[in-house]
Amino acid sequence: MRKLYSFITALLLTAVSLTASAQDGFDELIRSNAADATILFTNYANPLFRGFGTGLNSGWNNTAATKKLLHFDLRITANGAFVPTSDKSFDVTKVGLTRITPANPSDVIAPTFGGKDAEGPLMNVKDGSGQTLSSFRMPKGIFHIIPAPTVQLTVGLVQNTDVTFRITPDIKLGDDAGKVGMFGIGVKHNIIKDFVKTSSFDLALAVNYSRINYSKTLNVANEDGTSNASNNQRVDAKFSGVNVQAILSKKLLFFTPFVAVAYQSANTEFGVLGKYVVKSGGVAGPTGPVYTYNTLTDPVNINQNSIAGLRTDVGFQLNLAVFRIYASGSLGQYKSVNGGIGLGF
User: Fold this and answer.
1) Longest dimension (CA), the chain
2) What are the tens digits of pLDDT across the range 297-310?
3) Which of 82, 181, 215, 235 would be a feasible disulfide site paired with 170, CB 3.0-4.6 Å?
């Protein structure tokens, strides 16, 4: 399980480490004002947020049939959401920055998390009078396909109804990697069985909810040289998804194809929290620059609806004795593929 969730952690840590060219790239980012920091985080990481949202809403069901009382299915699946061209880059001059500007006015297109593997424009961090305090380069793109692994258990209840759980307690992934955990629950009901006991196909309705929690402590030095021991610097992130599905399937011996139509939504809460003491300006002094400092509190706060709209899933389930193989593809705001293996009884 630790290795499985390292996928999620790798993605989140990359979003936090916005600069690939310098070890203190994150420090440089928050030396702007809080609004600019949030703008850059949001625009760079949007494919990550939307890819996670797509993945959270994937892989719940591969058949409309429900299980008999207390029969179960345990599966591990992986989803890959494809970043569309429109989400692979953004113009840094058109997102509303106030204290961060491109060093070269003709170099303004930055890759997003899902963009090309090339550094973005050099950015200058300025104070209120327009003086440049520091510079950093926008990071490279990381993944064109956003992975989202899940582990889930489905148990049959009475009256042609299943309940599915995605529950993982917080797992510490190392001193520098933070903690990650998951919770999810879904309910599926085979409505055709309410009317026709021996139907040749299955038709079900399902409602599913899941959430990934991630937290990590940070250690960004105060630029005025004072201790940051009481600054409570940390990353706190929550990714949640909800979908309501109508599923149609037909069992053909050990092979069950299905099609599903769903309304899905996903929400992202991503915060870089705590206190950060940074340069806010400077003037020439007799022995060099004399700087003033400002304390930023909770500089990055993102709370947005990342995914909303219809999606269509088409796929199949193979039943090989107690073994299961699952695969599907989806069309929605992000296209995705999902596959997995499991045990069932």
Assistant:
1) 92
2) 888 888 999 999 99
3) 181
